Amino acid sequence: MMLKLEIGNSKLALEGENNRFRFSSFLFRPLLMTLRMIKFEHSIFALPFAFLGALLAAEGWPTGQQVFWIVVAMVGGRSAAMAFNRIADLRYDRLNPRTAARELPTGKLSLRFTWAFVVVSSAALVFAAWRLNPLAFRLSPLVLTVLLLYSYTKRFTTLSHWVLGFCLGMAPAGAWVAVRGALDWRISILTVAVMFWVAGFDIIYACQDVEFDRKAGLFSVPVSLGIAGALWVSRGLHLLMLGLLAWLAALAGLGAVAYAGLLLVAALLAYEHSLVKPDDLSQVNAAFFTVNGYISILLLVFWGADILGAGS
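RESULT FIELD:
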C-alpha cells in the first residue's frame, strides 16, 4: 500500500511538473519569439533620448519613481508599435524575400498571441502615464494612436520616414511631461532633432527594399529619388539634427562636455554614411543598428554628465 502511494505521488508530481513545463512553453516561448521579432534590444535607440529629456526637465536627477514609469511607458509604447507593425505589414512581409523568414510570415508565432502582446504593451504605456501625472495620462491615447498608425503611412506617403522619426521623437517630450507635468517649446527642439536623426537612418535602411517597394506600390524616399538621391537626403537630415542639437545645447546653457559629445556624434554619423554607398548596401545593418545605438548612448552620457555636473 505504501509502495503504491509513493508511486502515485511521484506520478502526480511528475504530471504537475509536466503541466508547468507545458504552460511555461506555451507562454514564454512565443513571448521570446515576439521580443526577437520586434528587436526588443533596439529600445536602446529611444530610451537614452527619453532619459535625456528627463534630465533636461529636472535640471538634474529625476526621481527614481519617475525614471521607472518613464521606462515602463517607453518600453510598452515601442513594443506595442513594433508588434502592431509586424501585424499590419504581414501581407508584405510574406512577399518580401528579406522579411519572409520572420516569425509571423512563417507561422512560428500566432496572430492571436501577437495581438495580445500589443494590447498588454499598450496598457502598460497608458498605466505608466497614469502613474506619472494627469497630463501624461491625458496624452497617452494620442501618443498610442500615432505609434500604431505609423504602420500604414508608407502605403500613401513618402513622409513615412518622418512619421517614424516623430514616434521616437516623442520620447524626450514625453519624458519632459513625465517630470514637469507640462510641455515646453524647448523640448520640441530635441523632438525634431530625434525625428530628423531617425528619418535619416530609416531612409538608409529603406534602400534595401527599394525594388520590392516599387513593385508593391509602397512609398519611400529611395523609391522616389533612387538610392543615391535618398542617401543625400539622409545626409542633409543628419546635418539638420546636429544643428538643432547645437541650438538646444546653447539654449540649455550646456558646456564643453556636451559639445564634445556632439562632436563624437557628428563623427559617428560621418562614419555611418561612409559605410553605405549607392552601389554597395552590404553594411546597412552595421550602419543602422550598431552605429545608431552608440550615437544615442554617447549623447546621453556626455550631455547627462554636463547637466548633472552643472546642477551639482
